[in-house]
Amino acid sequence: MFLGRISCIFNSHKPVRRSVEWNGEIHIGKCRACDHDIRRVRKGSWRRLRKPDAKTALPKFN
Ligand SMILES: [Zn+2]
């Protein structure tokens, strides 16, 4: 399991700028440290994006 940086453990992420998208409601991006999907809660503050369906799918290793 890849935990990323210490800040990620505390749910404070930094997005990859190119990955950031506006979905009409919130900004969504990829964390540059832990590679999780994250959403912007306020300027400079990003939190993990919850994807309830993501964990029901079998992980792919390759
Ligand atoms: Zn992170």
Short summary of the structure?
The protein is 6% helix and 26% strand. It has 1 helix and 4 strands.
Indicate the topology.
Layout: H1 6-9, E1 21-22, E2 27-30, E3 37-42, E4 45-48
Antiparallel strand pairs: 1-2, 2-3, 3-4
This protein binds zinc ion.
Zinc ion (ZN) is lined by residues 4, 8, 13, 31, 33-34, 36.
Describe this structure in words.
The structure is a single chain. By secondary structure, the protein is mainly beta. It has a domain of 33 residues. It has a four-stranded antiparallel β-sheet, with no helix packed on it. The longest helix has 4 residues. It is globular, with a radius of gyration of 12 Å. The structure holds zinc ion. The site of zinc ion has 7 residues, from loops.
> Any low-confidence stretches, pLDDT <50, length ≥5?
none
Q: What distance separates the N and C termini?
A: 15 Å
* Mean residue pLDDT: 83
The bound ligands are: zinc ion
SS-based class: mainly beta
- Residue share in β-strands: 25-35%
DSSP strand tally:
4
Supply the number of helical segments. Answer: 1
Global morphology: globular
List keywords for this structure.
single chain; 62 residues; 1 helix; 26% strand; globular; binds zinc ion
